[in-house]
Structure formats: C-alpha cells, structure tokens
C-alpha cells in the first residue's frame, strides 16, 4: 500500500514506487498523498490510511489535489525522524478502515524510539495510536518503586524542582529589570 | 525518556493509562508529580464510587476500588475476571522489613513497602508493619488516601466474623458482615456509639429499641418472625432486606405501613424487601393484606412507574440498584403526600418510597 524510496534533500521528491495495495481492488479509485520526514524519504499513503491522522486529514480534505499535484507536493514533516514516520505510515496502513484492536503489541520497546513515536503521533493527531503509545509508556513503570519511576522518567526531586523554580524566578526578575532599564533608556 | 518533555496532554494520556496503584506510588516521586496526577485525573478520581478496606482470613488487608466487573467466558463457564482494582495491600509482619523493601512517608509516618509480583494482585504495593503499629499505619494510609483521592469518595471498612477490628477514622463507613454466629454477640464487642453503614447477618436475639443497631443505613438480615416484627417497628435506616423463613403476622406489616403513612416513623426509608412464608392460603392473604393496609390502586390497564434506588451495597459493585418495583398498588404519606409503591408477590413484599408526591407519581403512570 505504501512505498518508500530514498529521497534527496532537493525540493522535488524522489519518485516513489508503489507496492501492490491489495488483492481486491476498490471500486472507486483511491487517492494517494505523499509525506516525508526529516530524512526526505517519501511515503505514498492512501487517503483512507491517512484518515487516522486528524492533522493530515484536515490538510488534505480541502486541497482537492490531483494525483500529479499530490506527488509534486509531499507533506513535509521535518520534525519527525524517517524511521518514526515509517512506523506511523505502516500503522496507518495496517489499520486502514479497520476497527482498532484493544492492544497493539508491535510498538517499539526501546525507550527513545517510543519517546519519539509518541511525539510524532501526538503531532499528527492519531488518537488511537497515541492511546497505545501512552499505554506502552505507562507499562514501563508498572511494578516500580517511586525511586525507580523517577529514574526511568527522569523526574526531578522536590529539591531540584525548587531550585529550578528559584532559578526561573531569578531569570524572570532579571528580564523584567532589563526591560524596565531599556524602557527608561528609550524614554530618555 | 523525560516525562516532562512530553506535551501536557500526552502526560495526561500516559497517567490515564496507569493503574491506580501505580499512580498512588508515583505520587510519592515528587510534590509536583502528585499535583500533576491530582489535577489531570480529576474526572477519573471523581468516577470512583467507593474505596474498600478489607481484611481477609490471614492478617492481610487490602485496599481497593470496586469496579464494574469484567467477566471472562471459557466454554460453558463464566467467571469474574476482575471486580476490584487494588490500590495497596497491608501485611502485619513479625520482623523487620525484607531486603527488597522501600520506605514511603505516608501522611507523616514512615512505612515499609514492597511490590507484590505474584498472584492476581499483580504488582500491587504492599505495606508491611508490626502488629503493634497497625492502628497508626491504617490511620496514616487512610489520611494519605483522603488527601490523594479526596473526601467525596465513600470509604468502607468491611468487618466480618472474627476480624472485628474497626478503626475510628474520618469519613469511614463501616459494613459488618457476619456469616458465623449471631449478630447480638458481635454487637456487644463493638463500641456503643458506632453507627454502621450496612449489616449483613443472622439475627436471633433482640436489640433494645434505642440501640444504634436500628440506625444502620442498610440491613440485610435472616431472622425469625418475632425479630422481623421488631425490625419493622424500630428500623430507622434507608434500606432493609429481611428474610424470614417462618410465617409472618399481617399485623406487623399493617402497623409498619400505618406508621409510615402517618409520618410517625421510617422517614428515611427508601426500600424494604421482606421475603417470608405466608403459608398455603396465600391468595386469600394477599387480598387480606392489601385490604388491611388500605392501598390505593392504579388503573389495571395502565403501566405503573418502576421504582428503584441505588443500593447501599457496601463493597460490592454487583446489582448496583434495588430490584425494581412495578406495582399497581401504592400508599401515600399524610405529612408530605409522598408515595410508596407496594408489591406483594407470592412470598415477597416490596415497599419502595418515591421522592414524588401522589400527583407527580400519577403523572408517571402510562
């Protein structure tokens, strides 16, 4: 359903290849759109699969692109790593037009990958996948003591929070004093 | 992975996916974390109807939330896969804590904890303490839960049979369940000022009319006909389910209804269910009872409204409402014109008090 090809950093996206979509062709020809992440690899995705993303769905619903226009104007998601976007595209394809199951066991187990996936999914507004990701993140601290939870999620201690708060206040005070001085200078 | 790097909505989503016991433990990570949990999970915490303290046969206690049961079907059998969500367990121990414990400051008291990683209470935090500290530990845990979940939730202490330790704590309702022996023997061991939320058990011997026993909000008792008459005379609570295996004097029921109608007694009563034996001349007695009570009738061709109220069910989620009463017969209280539906079916008498006046009640008839 989707295909990827190593793109270049130029504005024109590389020509993607199309994998066979399914055995039974849809009666109405489906429209496709193109997305790419930080790595510029372009992914061809059907409008049906993209419906999972409220952000992209909102973008495409008003465009009325032809196939050629869509190909020439892939949606750039420069804030999303290529491999993460690939995961998202795969998930959208797998769950296209299907009710989402209560659990998804195919999410990455590595902390950093999962962290990036959560941010991407949140940005793209894919509600169901975000719920799965949140569940997976929550599972990381199941059965852990408060100290272990602190370590896993890098949560500051009360003392660190207080120090950070003091520092922020100090900085805000300095900034306010700077602004007052600048305003006084302007007045002169 | 730094949790604070996630947008607030994502943090909220992660917390929403955590089990309550996990959230409880996480609230000890920092003050800010506790604030975040409390502010982001307001709706979830508000949906908790009751938190239950329960001691089982061993000296182990558990604190859990009653949740809507999840049923698991295997072939011909259906079992309850989950009816409670554990918050923590409590264990009285004779020695100092084991190696894998950690210490938490629970409402000013340092208590040893470990994580239970076996059985159906998978990953439940377990508080361990010396028996001598039991009262103060339970008090601290209760205060901590009040602070974390709020005081709008009902907190139930379930005491049963030989485990009659009942702590006196703020906002704590007590349910007494006696399966072995008689209620009056147990009652004599309890503090005289204690007013209970619910009593379930057998009652053979009488209580004095002025006893706090009659102020219990909900009772579910097996008793003889004499005791039944006494309960019908003195009960001041909201719900009563009384099972009497002997035949039962109509006089008791007519007196009960007359006192309710006059507004003299049973002003808090919402629901009464009497299961009894009327003997073989049931048909005759049903008419006799209804005549003796002096009921009013709804047109037989019309459908009466159905009465049901949330059950004061203690620690269980099952059957959250009383059995519906849909009856063409009713009585009206003279003092405020409120209606009570009366149903006499075979060996069951149901009496359900409406919030509606007679006029409002009749408007509900279809």
TrEMBL record, chain A:
InterPro entries cross-referenced by the UniProt entry: SKP1, SKP1-like, SKP1-like_dim_sf, SKP1/BTB/POZ_sf, Skp1_comp_dimer, Skp1_comp_POZ
Bias-annotated ranges (Low complexity): 8-25, 178-188
Region of interest (Disordered), residue spans: 1-25, 160-188
UniProt record, GO biological process: protein ubiquitination; ubiquitin-dependent protein catabolic process
Cited PANTHER family: SKP1
Family: Belongs to the SKP1 family.
Organism this protein belongs to: Caenorhabditis nigoni
The protein's annotated pathway: Protein modification; protein ubiquitination
Top-level taxonomic group: Eukaryota
Physiological role: Probable essential component of SCF (SKP1-CUL1-F-box protein) E3 ubiquitin-protein ligase complexes, which mediate the ubiquitination and subsequent proteasomal degradation of target proteins. Regulates cell proliferation during embryonic and larval development.
Keyword Metal-binding among UniProt keywords: no
Lineage: Eukaryota, Metazoa, Ecdysozoa, Nematoda, Chromadorea
SKP1 component POZ domain ranges (all copies): 38-96
Feature: compositional bias, Basic and acidic residues: 165-177
Keywords annotated in UniProt: Ubl conjugation pathway
Ranges where the SKP1 component dimerisation domain occurs: 127-170
Gene3D superfamilies in the cross-refs: Potassium Channel Kv1.1, Chain A (3.30.710.10)
Designated name of the protein: Skp1-related protein
Encoding gene, per UniProt annotation: Cnig_chr_III.g8742
UniProtKB/TrEMBL annotation, chain B:
Domain F-box per the UniProt entry, residue ranges: 1-48
Pfam families per record: F-box
UniProt-listed InterPro entries: F-box_dom
UniProt-listed PANTHER family: F-BOX ASSOCIATED DOMAIN-CONTAINING PROTEIN-RELATED (PTHR21503:SF8), F-BOX-CONTAINING HYPOTHETICAL PROTEIN C.ELEGANS (PTHR21503)
Protein's name in the database: F-box domain-containing protein
Source organism of this protein record: Caenorhabditis nigoni
């Amino acid at each position: 359903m989707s295909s990827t090809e190593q793109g270049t950093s130029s504005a024109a996206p590389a020509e993607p290849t199309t994998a066979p979509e399914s055995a039974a062709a849809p009666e109405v020809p489906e429209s496709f759109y193109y997305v790419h992440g930080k790595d510029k690899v372009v992914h061809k995705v059907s409008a049906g699969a993209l419906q999972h993303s409220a952000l992209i769905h909102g973008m495409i619903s008003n465009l009325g692109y032809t196939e050629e226009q869509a190909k020439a104007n892939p949606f750039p998601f420069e804030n999303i790593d290529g491999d993460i976007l690939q995961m998202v595209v795969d998930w959208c394809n797998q769950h296209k037009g299907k009710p989402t199951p209560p659990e998804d066991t195919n999410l990455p187990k590595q902390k950093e990958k999962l962290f990036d996936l959560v941010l991407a999914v949140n940005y793209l507004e894919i509600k169901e996948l975000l719920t799965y990701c949140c569940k997976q993140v929550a599972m990381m601290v199941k059965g852990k003591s408060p100290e272990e939870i602190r370590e896993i999620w890098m949560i500051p201690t009360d003392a660190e929070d207080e120090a950070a708060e003091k520092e922020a206040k100090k900085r805000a005070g300095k900034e306010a004093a700077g602004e007052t001085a600048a305003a006084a200078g302007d007045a002169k | 992975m730094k949790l604070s790097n996630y947008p607030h909505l994502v943090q909220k989503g992660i917390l929403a996916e955590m089990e309550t016991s996990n959230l409880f433990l996480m609230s000890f990570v920092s003050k800010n974390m506790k604030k975040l949990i409390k502010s982001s999970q307001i709706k979830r915490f508000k949906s908790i109807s009751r938190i239950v303290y329960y001691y089982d046969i061993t000296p182990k206690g558990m604190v859990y939330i009653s949740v809507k049961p999840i049923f698991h079907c295997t072939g011909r059998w259906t079992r309850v896969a989950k009816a409670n969500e554990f918050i923590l367990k409590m264990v009285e121990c004779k020695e100092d804590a084991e190696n894998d414990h950690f210490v938490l400051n629970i409402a000013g008291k340092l208590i040893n904890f470990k994580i239970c990683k076996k059985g159906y209470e998978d990953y439940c935090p377990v508080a361990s303490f010396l028996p001598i500290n039991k009262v103060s530990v339970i008090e601290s845990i209760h205060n901590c839960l009040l602070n974390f979940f709020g005081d709008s939730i009902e907190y139930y202490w379930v005491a049963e049979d030989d485990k009659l330790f009942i702590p006196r704590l703020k906002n704590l309702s007590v349910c007494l369940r006696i399966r072995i022996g008689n209620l009056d023997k147990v009652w004599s061991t309890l503090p005289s000022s204690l007013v209970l939320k619910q009593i379930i058990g057998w009652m053979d011997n009488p209580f004095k009319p002025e006893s706090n026993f009659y102020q219990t909000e909900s009772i579910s008792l097996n008793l003889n006909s004499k005791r039944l008459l006494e309960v019908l005379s003195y009960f001041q609570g909201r719900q009563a389910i009384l099972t009497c295996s002997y035949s039962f004097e109509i006089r008791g029921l007519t007196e009960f209804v007359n006192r309710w109608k006059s507004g003299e007694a049973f002003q808090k009563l919402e629901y009464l269910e009497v299961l009894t034996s009327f003997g073989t001349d049931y048909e005759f007695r049903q008419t006799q009872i209804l005549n003796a009570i002096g009921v009013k009738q709804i047109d037989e061709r019309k459908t009466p409204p159905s009465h049901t109220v949330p059950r004061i069910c203690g620690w269980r989620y099952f059957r959250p409402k009383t059995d519906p009463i849909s009856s063409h017969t009713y009585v009206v209280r003279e003092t405020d014109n409120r209606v009570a539906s009366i149903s006499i079916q075979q060996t069951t008498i149901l009496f359900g008090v409406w919030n509606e006046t007679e006029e409002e009640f009749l408007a509900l008839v279809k």
